Automatic annotation (TrEMBL):
<keyword id="KW-0732">Signal</keyword>
<feature type="domain" description="DNA/RNA non-specific endonuclease/pyrophosphatase/phosphodiesterase">
    <location>
        <begin position="51"/>
        <end position="245"/>
    </location>
</feature>
<dbReference type="InterPro" id="IPR020821">
    <property type="entry name" value="ENPP1-3/EXOG-like_nuc-like"/>
</dbReference>
<dbReference type="InterPro" id="IPR040255">
    <property type="entry name" value="Non-specific_endonuclease"/>
</dbReference>
<feature type="signal peptide">
    <location>
        <begin position="1"/>
        <end position="21"/>
    </location>
</feature>
<protein>
    <submittedName>
        <fullName>Endonuclease G</fullName>
    </submittedName>
</protein>
<dbReference type="InterPro" id="IPR001604">
    <property type="entry name" value="Endo_G_ENPP1-like_dom"/>
</dbReference>
<dbReference type="Pfam" id="PF01223">
    <property type="entry name" value="Endonuclease_NS"/>
</dbReference>
<keyword id="KW-0540">Nuclease</keyword>
<feature type="domain" description="ENPP1-3/EXOG-like endonuclease/phosphodiesterase">
    <location>
        <begin position="52"/>
        <end position="245"/>
    </location>
</feature>
<dbReference type="InterPro" id="IPR044925">
    <property type="entry name" value="His-Me_finger_sf"/>
</dbReference>
<dbReference type="GO" id="GO:0004519">
    <property type="term" value="F:endonuclease activity"/>
</dbReference>
<keyword id="KW-0255">Endonuclease</keyword>
<keyword id="KW-0378">Hydrolase</keyword>
<dbReference type="InterPro" id="IPR044929">
    <property type="entry name" value="DNA/RNA_non-sp_Endonuclease_sf"/>
</dbReference>
Length: 261
């Protein structure tokens, strides 16, 4: 099912307004203590910041998905996460008004996975693990991506952290093009996904984009893109607390040698 023209125009509006800093009560999850800035008026509409114990999000009433989920991974945190067994507990986010949030029913028989942004396997304790299954941290994701290359990127980040680096990670959906699907007439389906990984101490970062096409003719490969290009496409400033971030060197993650653009 295709989304209405009104919703498309709200989401894809390219005109930029003065940046709206996403207020946050959990600066510990963000590089430089600041959440991304929203530049598109459409994204500013109905944007609600939410804090969880191990990650922070901004949720959109327009898409009924998060616009991003941010986490700070340390070797100690990842070591703790490795001791926990996965316990699925997907649930609606009760802090959001019913009219603005996704419901479990929206995903039923949709063909899409309930895809984590901040992944369950990054969560250091049972509370954080349960919170990661909130639909405020979930987007509709093509199964081949969620269970394949997206998961590969998540694991590559953890391997880098296990090697002794602390990393800031921002993951989120991208809504591009004029034909956007929706679940149950309510939840927008991303056209692609992005992941930004930043090592502040080493002054390095890397950004990835992965298609979210449900049934691609051939399995796409995630691409590395520059921070400048990613921010332009999203209509966000992803690292406002790190003004010099665009000049950072390239962060290399294990097993992620791909073409760059």
């Amino acid at each position: 099912m295709q989304i209405s023209r009104i919703a498309i125009s709200l989401l894809l509006a390219s005109a930029l307004s003065p940046a709206l800093a996403a207020q946050t009560d959990c600066p510990q999850h963000y590089a430089g203590g600041q959440a991304p800035d929203l530049l598109k008026p459409a994204m500013q509409q109905g944007a609600r910041p939410l804090c969880f114990s191990a990650f922070g999000v901004v949720h959109s009433a327009v898409s009924r998905t998060p616009l991003w989920s941010a986490e700070y991974l340390t070797p100690a945190r990842v070591a703790k996460a490795a001791t926990l067994e996965r316990k699925d507990s997907f649930h609606e986010e009760e802090r959001l008004p019913e009219a603005e949030r996704a419901e479990l029913e929206d995903y039923r028989a949709s063909g899409y996975d309930r895809g984590h942004l901040s992944p369950n396997h990054d969560m250091p304790d049972l509370q954080a693990q349960a919170e990661s299954f909130s639909l405020a941290n979930i987007v509709p994701q093509a199964p081949w991506a969620n269970r394949g290359q997206w998961g590969d990127l998540e694991e590559a980040v953890r391997k880098r952290v296990k090697a002794g680096r602390s990393l800031h990670v921002i993951s989120g959906p991208m809504f591009e093009g004029s034909q956007l699907a929706q679940l149950d007439g309510r939840v927008l389906v991303p056209s692609a996904m992005f992941k930004l990984v930043c090592d502040l101490q080493a002054r390095q970062l890397v950004a990835f984009v992965l298609s979210n096409e449900l049934r691609p003719a051939a399995t796409p490969r995630y691409q590395q893109v520059s921070l400048v290009e990613l921010e332009r496409r999203l209509g966000m400033t992803l690292l406002p607390g790190v003004p010099e971030a665009a000049a950072f060197g390239k962060l290399v993650l294990p097993g992620t040698s791909t073409a760059s653009r």
